[in-house]
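User: Hey, quick favor. My workstation is busy. Could you predict this chain's structure for me?
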Amino acid sequence: MVIIIMKKSEFVVKIENGRDIMFNVGNRHYTIITWLDDGIGIGEQNKPKNEISVYPDADTLLKEFLVDGRPLGDLTEKIIITDYS
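Assistant: No problem, here it is.
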């Protein structure tokens, strides 16, 4: 397991240059998939596919995807990446 803690700008670069990113925020586990035809997908791990949210770009994802009512972009220093490809 690779554990990386980073700033918001570093996380944007990871999203823009990666394919799959698995990470934890608190006790929740998420996956970002960047290879969708219609944008960048994010969802909680081990949930049905229909619970994936899709955003046009990394900045929009970080502004609009909420974790416990807070934008993911406000939580980037608490993100622990567990797998990155």
